[in-house]
Amino acid sequence: MRRDFFITIVGLAALAALAPVAQAVEHVTLRNGFEMDCHHHARVEGHVRLYFNADEVNYGDFTPEQIIRFEQIPDPPPVQLTAEIPPKGAPPAPDAKLSPEDLHEMLSTVGHEHKLDVDLLASLVKAESGGNARAVSRTGARGLMQLMPGTANDLGVTDSFEPEQNVRGGSAYLDMLLTRYHENIVKALAAYNAGPAAVDKYNGIPPYPETYAYVRRVIHEFNRRVHAHEWQQQQAIASAATQPGKPSR
Question: 6 with 191: CB under 8 angstroms?
């Protein structure tokens, strides 16, 4: 699984773009070619400290020489999705929203096949469609993972509104992008949203507000899920430790 890889990246200062970045307002370009978003920054003991949320709990320290520039970026609302309008006389559409259990099982199966973490796939599905299998974007992307018709055709997806086909196609596409960008999740997500040509042109997230917001949403949701699992594990361990032991004979 790639999960350990992603969690490790969260802790590396050079790839701090993967830390929680809700409400990020600054885009930072590093001299080593990496880019990231942060909530704000400050000078601390000769270093530049990047804070990834308003409460300043998560941050990374850099030397001034490591940073090329800061850019203020807008935070537009999520992409609006519309429901597909069926043709006249068509049979009623099936329930567009899978149960959380069904969706989790599907993502787990497909994620295992592509060595992709289920939390990453679930975060992408939430950002793309909110779990609506029949969602259609204003640009024509369809289904749970919002596949454009041309991309779906290239991936062998014959019906983007069929949940399993859509998830398999979207997961295969994300896997291809991660391989293409050497496991750089930021570039892979940007390419999923804006296309590889745009990422290659700008060697990173293209200067599109929608793409900036999209990458932030997916990474923030992914980290939220990871931290929630960690908290649950800690609670389980703490609960087990407080259970009275069996009386000795």
Answer: no
